[in-house]
Amino acid sequence: MMSAAAGGTRPTGTCRVCEGTVVEFLDLGRQPLSDRFLSEPDLAGEFFFHLSVGVCEACTMVQLMEEVPREKMFHEDYPYYSSGSSVMQKHFAHTARRFLETELTGPDPFMVEIGSNDGVLLRTIHEAGVRHLGFEPSGKVADVARAGGLRVRGDFFEESTAVEVRAAEGPADVIYAANTICHIPYLKSVFQGVDALLAPDGVFVFEDPYLGDILEKTSFDQIYDEHFFFFTARSVQAMAGRFGFELVDVERLPVHGGEVRYTIARAGARRPAGSVARLIAEEEDRRVASPERLGRFAADVNGIRDDLLALLRRLKAEGKRVVAYGATAKSATVTNFCGIGPELVSWVCDTTPTKQGRLTPGAHIPVRPAEAFSASAADYALLFAWNHADEIMAKEQEFRRAGGRWILYVPRVHVES
């Protein structure tokens, strides 16, 4: 495949939403499963795919050019736990309370969450005594939620499973998803499931990384196997309309490097808020999905790769010790696209026990417990979990006091003392 930066004829595909033509604008090369942390015996059979992203010429939906089978990504040993960040715990508790105050006020309200993970949001719903059900196909994180008394179904959400829930439970007042809908290539079946399960006046609410923020911050590491779609208000409005729904509200969120919460209702059921038209107008002014803007983003991504590699190689030549912080899913894109391995970054620390003692996907950088960081005496720390920078830097003040410096690559490569 040829990247947009290289010029020439660009690869094309078919839009997974409207069946229009998708034109590639960024090629990030050979990539592994972003959450598949390996032991030594696993290395020989590691799965790789080609990671590139394009835009639909018809509906402007930005999406991956190649789909990775969902069973390879979301499985029994899926290692991400939503409760791992105190910031996200507060975010989800606040979100749940808002639903309790606005949408879940009837005599027997019912809420369904798609991709409920370890139950960080449903916990507040459960404590309020509200009927709920989570869909979570990743076994171990689902077990954590069940251990806390939550009702969780170990399936993917799609038309067939939604129909079964409607028959058993009745209609849902709220169907919610956080950092999940963008993962799902088969959105037609999802919307058919929403249609089957949602109450006539109910809402389908989801929040995911916002393409406008990704472009503004050049946060290319938001592009990895699990993130199939990259939404804007305009593309979500078109998608909702195609499936018989209507985008009725949008809200910008600061979490995960910049997200938007989209509220969708049945067509004509609710009057759209002014926020929808305002955000679409802003996107048009900024030409968010235009070939020129996406081409400039691709050039900026290549520049970050070159700058980051140059910095790490210089530090190695100077005899400096560099480690990394946060074995995130998105760090797989950075390490594999840039060609960063243990020869440049000695190891990466992470708080997730199932990642510790293993090797990062593709790049095979050793993962150590978070406790190793304070004792490391590293000169520099490459912050992969940059979206939690404030929380991490406040926690690791001793590193800075000892003379350590943080390396960040969003929105550009820079060093913070």
TrEMBL record:
Pfam families (UniProt xref): Methyltransf_13 (PF08421), Methyltransf_14 (PF08484), Methyltransf_23 (PF13489)
UniProt xrefs under InterPro entries: Methyltransf_Zn-bd_dom_put, Methyltransf_Zn-bd_dom_put_sf, MeTrfase_14, SAM-dependent_MTases_sf
Residue span, C-methyltransferase domain: 254-411
Ranges of residues in domain Methyltransferase putative zinc binding: 15-74
Protein name as it appears in the record: Methylation protein EvaC
Native species: Streptosporangium brasiliense
